[in-house]
Amino acid sequence: MRTARTAAIAAFAACLATTAAADEMAKPDWATSKWGPEDEIGAANTMTPERVKSAAGLVTEGKVYSLGMIVGSDTPAFPPRTLSVTVLQPNQVSTSGLGDNAFTYNDDIFMGWLGIGPQIDGLGHAGVDHVYYNGHTDDEFAGAAGLSKLGLHNLPGLVGRGVMLDMAKFYGVDMVESGRAYTEEDIKAAADAQGVTLGEGDVVLFNSNWMNLLDGDDADPEKFGATEPGLGVSGAEYLASLGVMAVGADTWGLEVVPAEVEGQAFRAHQILQPENGIYILENMDTRELAHDGVHEFLFVLGHARIKGTVQMIINPIAIR
Predict the structure, then answer these.
(1) CB of 99 within 8 A of CB of 118?
(2) Reduced to 3 states, what is the DSSP secondary structure of residue 181?
(3) Collapsed DSSP state (helix, strand, coil) of residue 185
(4) Partners of 164 in the beta sheet?
(5) How does the average pLDDT of the chain come out, rounded?
(6) Helix (H, G, I), strand (E, B) or coil at 70
(7) Tally of CB atoms within 10 A around 51
(8) Nearest C-alpha neighbor of 44 from the set 171, 213, 160
(9) What percent of the chain shows pLDDT beyond 70?
(10) Partner residues linked to 282 by β-bridges
(11) 252-290 tens-digit pLDDT
């Protein structure tokens, strides 16, 4: 009896091992990060002390640009994302406040999605058929109470050389039209025309003036959130080949919508995030940089490190 039980246990263990090995073999080549099987921060590994010091050297005037658009309950967002803020005066309605000095205060309650308005997409956001950065599958790490892997709390922040490509200026238009894809050729040509190079560890931002649809004379919030110009597939592959740290734009979804290939959805997200560990920044207000003709700057991003989060509302800073 004991021999039979031992044999059954061994057979079951062998079956589990075979299944696990088959699952690993089924994962695509990109599912193993070049930074190692335990890595959770992806392209942030390119943020070396040497690159940070070099980026700090770009500051010549000390002018600060806030890249985070103001966000409210009426900000267009990818469905079903919403937010609201409620301001309260806890335990003060029928009192004069705390202490003999009548200390009173306001507090606020945030209720909403963290992937709304100016945001960073962490590496647990975009996947390919439920496979995410470094081969993690959502059944392994994406619990309802928070991510057990790839959470944005792992990211210390992003600091480095920022590059802004003014695609509206490059195409010679006031605002880039919806459905216009930034191809590899476009990105190379725009960088050349605007006197910048792109390289490993950079934070690359695109300006299309799309945000004029939110607060310009011809504001059209519905159009803003329905379609957009943005990064194309070849452009994403090119930036990934350079080893950039993050890619952002002044649109709600970074990449071109509708997609270049009918039937595809957010292919550039897949190229950047699960396949290459590159961070995505959305709804970045790059208009002031474009107005001043600033294409190279120190980029600084610190975010709320809430454990297990997928995305976070942010306000990155560009310093000229």
Answers:
(1) no
(2) strand
(3) helix
(4) 205
(5) 93
(6) coil
(7) 18
(8) 160
(9) 92
(10) 119
(11) 999 999 999 999 999 999 999 999 999 999 999 999 999
CA distances from 16 to 19, 69, 141 (A): 5, 50, 20
Contacts of 3 (CB under 8 A, 6+ apart): none
Measured CA to CA, the distance from residue 35 to residue 14 in angstroms comes to 30
Task: Calculate the alpha carbon distances from 229 to 135, 208, 219 in Å.
Answer: 30, 7, 16
Q: Which helix (H) or strand (E) is 280 found in, with range?
A: strand 279-282
Report CA Rg, the chain. Answer: 23
- The yes or no reply on domain 32-77+114-319 and CATH 3.50.30.50 is yes
The pLDDT of 202-215, averaged and rounded, is: 97
Structure tokens at 128: 């390919």
What's the longest Cα–Cα distance across the chain? 84
Domain ranges of the chain: 1-29, 32-77+114-319, 83-112
CB of 110 within 8 A of CB of 143? no
| Lookup: tokens for 257 | 């919508």
Q: How far apart are CA 230 and CA 183, in angstroms?
A: 9
DSSP-derived secondary structure letter, 287 = H
End-to-end CA distance of the chain: 77
SS3 268: helix
Residue linked to tokens 């809430």: 306
pLDDT at 21 over 50: no
Q: With CA atoms as reference, report the closest residue to 127 among 110, 108, 149, 105.
A: 149
Averaged pLDDT, 174-179 = 97
Q: Which pTM was predicted? A: 0.91
